From TrEMBL:
Taxon lineage: Bacteria, Bacillati, Actinomycetota, Actinomycetes, Streptosporangiales
Positions of the UniProt region annotated as Disordered: 1-22
Limits of the DUF2520 domain: 160-283
Pfam families linked: DUF2520, Rossmann-like
Domain Putative oxidoreductase/dehydrogenase Rossmann-like: 18-142
Protein's organism: Actinomadura chokoriensis
Designated name of the protein: DUF2520 domain-containing protein
Protein origin, superkingdom: Bacteria
Length: 309
């Protein structure tokens, strides 16, 4: 197999009737049978590749392999890599550098093998020990949350993947993303930390904000906070994605310093942590609104006084 050959597209109607009959089918190994690894392995199997082996230590991970990757052997990381043409390293970010160097130290043959990780934090430099040993490095980060539910694989359809690879491997990386149903977005090596910080700040902190809002509404006597928030937050998210800052509403956008001051005082009584978050985000909102010309300087000054520590 020529590792630099572009795998066939998984798009409907772009190849033989059976995915398994397409050229450049790969034997796939999964090191880290968690939610992400098994979902991507299943997506690659759907595209006609063969998932031949996976690591699984806990009962839960073994169950995932049985359910999502039927026919895959449960093996050690060394044996998984040895059996595969394409290896998915789907372990927590902090474990990835040690895993990459450990596989080389163990003498696992990697020459000519595609070694792919799914970390948003790293590009391909984290795989340098493997690259020096002859591996072909790929960083393909799916921009999606994975819950471990059966619909994880279907949720890959249409999502973005942050792609980083050596330039000769870029067609391979992008083709694999397309086969999994995603859309490749090129991210340079040096931009990976900022890229990941942006995604984590948006997605992870959004969940925290939603849960905090529901808790505060419950303390205010609302019986079903989620039901109340759903339409509002859905509209706010849609406005932000479609309109950017022009979709901003609320007391900060209106320059309503009195209301903001009341919010800060009330939050100080019931949740100092929430108050700090509110103040920080309101300051950022005011700064952006001022810079965009949505907020007059005198209104911004009053707001910042209300938000002073």
């Amino acid at each position: 197999m020529d590792p630099y050959a572009k795998p066939a597209s998984g798009a409907p109607g772009n190849g033989p009737d059976s995915p398994q009959d397409r050229p450049a089918r790969l034997a796939v190994g999964v090191v880290g049978a968690g939610r992400v690894g098994t979902a991507l392995g299943a997506a690659l199997a759907r595209a006609g590749h063969r998932v031949v082996a996976a690591t699984a230590v806990s009962d839960r991970s073994r169950t995932r392999v049985e359910e999502r990757l039927p026919g895959a052997d449960v093996a050690t990381p060394q044996d998984v890599v040895a059996a595969a043409d394409l290896v998915l390293l789907t372990v927590p970010d902090d474990e990835l550098p040690e895993l990459a160097s450990g596989l080389v130290s163990a003498g696992v043959p990697v020459t000519g093998k595609l070694i792919m990780h799914t970390s948003g934090r790293y590009g391909t430099a984290v795989l340098d020990p493997l690259t020096r040993a002859g591996a072909l490095p790929l960083a393909l980060h799916p921009v999606m949350t994975f819950t471990g539910r059966p619909d994880d694989v279907n949720r890959l359809t249409g999502i973005s993947f942050g792609v980083t690879s050596p330039e000769p491997l870029r067609p391979v990386a992008e083709a694999l993303v397309l086969e999994m149903g995603g859309e490749p977005v090129w991210i340079t090596e040096e931009a990976r930390p900022l890229y990941h910080a942006a995604l984590a700040g948006g997605a992870n902190h959004l969940v925290t904000l939603v849960v905090e809002s529901m808790d505060l509404l419950a303390r205010a006597g609302v019986a079903e906070p989620g039901r109340m928030l759903g339409p509002l937050l859905g509209a706010a998210l849609d406005n932000g994605l479609r309109l950017g800052l022009d979709g901003l509403t609320g007391p900060v956008a209106r320059g309503d310093a009195g209301t903001v001051s009341d919010h800060v005082a009330e939050l100080a009584k019931v949740s100092p942590e929430s108050r700090r978050a509110y103040v920080a985000l309101a300051r950022l909102t005011a700064d952006r609104a001022l810079a965009a010309g949505l907020l007059k300087p005198e209104a911004a000054e009053l707001l910042l006084e209300a938000l002073a520590d």
